Amino acid sequence: MAWLLGGLNFQVEHHLLPKICHINFPALSKVVEQCCKDFGIRYNEHTTFAAGIASHYRWLKEMGRATVEDGGSNDKSTPPADGRFAGSARLPAT
């Protein structure tokens, strides 16, 4: 699967440890998963390509819906005047 995805299936490990050789990522993923469990952090894993694609589609659909429901445009280059970004929590006023 790593060859097909170009290593994106180990994106978390890559960003946590960018100088580590990619051949170590499968073993490191188990360490990262256990560390997340130890600290109560949700660790999302999609065990099939189809599950990953389906999850990505649902996320994009949700992000598109959040923009429309917030009354904003599809242009994300400028945040809405009330200080919120689509799908994010309210940001403190500056």
Give a summary of the structure in a few sentences.
Helix content is 49%, strand content 0%. By secondary structure, it is mainly α. The chain has two domains: 1-45, no CATH class; 46-94.
Describe the secondary structure blueprint for this structure.
Layout: H1 2-5, H2 11-16, H3 25-39, H4 49-69
3D architecture notes:
By secondary structure, the protein is mainly α. It has two domains: 1-45, no CATH class; 46-94. The protein is built from four helices and no strands. It has helices at residues 2-5, 11-16, 25-39, 49-69. The longest helix has 21 residues, at 49-69. The radius of gyration is 17 Å and the shape is globular.
Shape: globular
pLDDT < 50 runs, ≥5 residues: 83-94
Query: What kind of sheet is the major sheet?
Result: none
Helix-and-strand structural type: mainly alpha
Radius of gyration: 17 Å
Roughly how much helix do the residues carry, as a percent range?
Answer: 40-55%
Order of helices and strands: HHHH
Strand runs, count:
0
Averaged pLDDT: 76
Q: In angstroms, what separates the terminal alpha carbons?
A: 45 Å
Q: How many alpha or pi helices?
A: 4
Could you say how many structural domains there are in total? 2
Question: Strand content of the residues, in percent?
Answer: under 5%
Keywords, separated by commas or semicolons:
single chain; 94 residues; 4 helices; globular; disordered C terminus
